[in-house]
Amino acid sequence: MNARVRVRGIYATALTRLLLDAGHTVVDASPPIRRRFDESFPSTPPDATVATTEDRLGVGVSGDPDAVATVRDLLAGVGIDAVQWTDPTPPGTVLDGEVTDTLGGGAVVSLAAGGDENGAPPGERVEGYLPYGDVDARIEEGDHVRVQVRETVATWESHRPELDATLRAGGGIVTLEPGSGIRVDTRDDEAARELAGMTDLLGLEAPNGWRTVWRASAVDADMEALEAGLERAVDSAERLAEAVGETGVIDAADASDSPVAEPTAGAWIRFGRECRFALDDHRRAVTATMPGHHRVKAGSADASAGVDLAEALCEPDPDAAFPFETVRAVFGPAEGDSLRIEHGKPDGRLITLGEGEVTAVDDEGSVTVRRSMTAGGSYDALDIPRESGDVAVTKLKEGRWWYPTTYRTSDGAVKGTYVNVCTPVEVFPDAASYVDLHVDVVKHADGTVERVDDDVLDESVADGDTPEPLAEKARSVASALENAL
Known about the structure:
This protein is an alpha+beta fold.
């Protein structure tokens, strides 16, 4: 299908080029995108919205289910190290849940978000956060509530989707919410009055009990786009009200074990290092782009601003190598800094393996991290106890599909080495990031080399978490490590 897509975030230029080349229509483009492209960008309502995740490692896609599926497939094909997941709580979804905890500003709600259509088995539950100010009743542990997802979060992020007991419908340039009248989200009072007057000319009215809220971008939209957006929002509000009924606190007997209403679908795509460089190529076809543009921007807000300044001051050499050492020297990490090891999983989880001290850096893109271990348990696959005083020394090299961690006793004796196979390592200022690919190679203290967890990788492929091309790359890397060790 030809999808109408709204794009925002640090990948916007590259993804706009990619979408246009694939025959899709980009709508409601930002001013920088309008300047960079010799294209006409309509203000019509989007079928799907693409936005960069909070941590800048990937994007979320939400909107019409068919459009989301189409765009998701396109973006997941950007590079071999792209990993994708279905969002169980896309914005606008209405779910029933049980309050499991009450915090200072809101409640934790266990949501019935399972079901085959959103990629989870029936009965699977996810947690959301309901601010007390967004529900018109006092709520306590054990209460059942019917709520709408206001803001979703990426699969790998630690915080919870934000919920609201008040329904909203539509999206794009116009939203309907409880109330009456018309509101325009702009500081230009004259433009707001003009748009409110144009709304009356459309011949469409919000359903009883709803008010019309126009986004600032609607000020520049033509009558056709305004009419299409409002018509879609009105239709959505009517269907939502009919399907949902009451919101807020409900009787336990009325609670549903599946989503009450799913006006939108959602997906997450986490880009790896190879994806970021592939996106550089798409962006370079439009405007000056330094090597590693998206790789640097993904690291931090300061690094992102530095890229913008560098590209504004000089014409980047497209054939130059990625200046990792320069980027690291300016933004970190440096010797003495703390660095987290963020161990992503193909099923969407993110596990922080701990935080250690950077003890060495070199010009070849390697960073050595030392962690002090606590007693208890054993080291995976090495089958040796973890004892107080043990030290883990991890050597992370930018862009490599693996990294080793050597465990030593308090007196320096080697207990074994664990070599993790993963998507290409990215050493950001505060964390080393990658997605674990399950299969690994270990070297025991006596020199014995063992390859482990091939069966776990096979299961991950069968479950649809790890794409087969990525799994094949992991197996190839593991074989090479076996021979090298």
